[in-house]
Amino acid sequence: MVLPEDPKYALKKVDEIREMVDNDLGFQQAPLMCYSRTKTLLFISNDKKVVGCLIAEHIQWGYRVIEDKLPVIRSEEEKVRFERQKAWCCSTLPEPAICGISRIWVFSMMRRKKIASRMIECLRSNFIYGSYLSKEEIAFSDPTPDGKLFATQYCGTGQFLVYNFINGQNST
Ligand code: COA
Question: What residues does the N-acetyltransferase ESCO acetyl-transferase domain cover (predicted)?
């Protein structure tokens, strides 16, 4: 975990990784609200490569995703295809939240090995000293289709919390 008060070389590395992640996501991410309060988790492989990155920030509110009614779907593949195509909507009712996942990324060759899940577990026990965050206290920033599929599985519901969904206007 890299914290804002860590040495410059570590912060520089985090900046480089964030830039690469933003390019990989392929669109302009909402800017971080307050750099001095972010926590960055890096997942380092056995051969010492950064294969996962999670950037978290303090937030106050999240908004619940409104789940669409699924058409009759026969296979898992169909479900994924449907999820990728459809837009998502969320409630306008703010709900208290503590931790915003601004970015979560895993190297493409290493996906579906529970790296993102392990990074979130680590985040939950380290974001606030001495407390373990519940899944209800976490929100995802403007999730991508991959992010939505992951968050639905991780949170155990498609109605997880999101924030930052209109160019950061709703962030706190
Ligand atoms: N399609 C369908 N289900 C997915 C999924 C996908 N692309 N990614 C994750 N899941 C679900 C699966 O149920 C998975 O369990 P399983 O592999 O046993 O079926 C479960 O979530 C846990 O996934 P995990 O292995 O912990 O996730 P990951 O390490 O592959 O990382 C992302 C997930 C989203 C971080 C990764 O796909 C990624 O980096 N994508 C590109 C960047 C991005 O879009 N980030 C999200 C920003 S909100």
Answer: 95-163
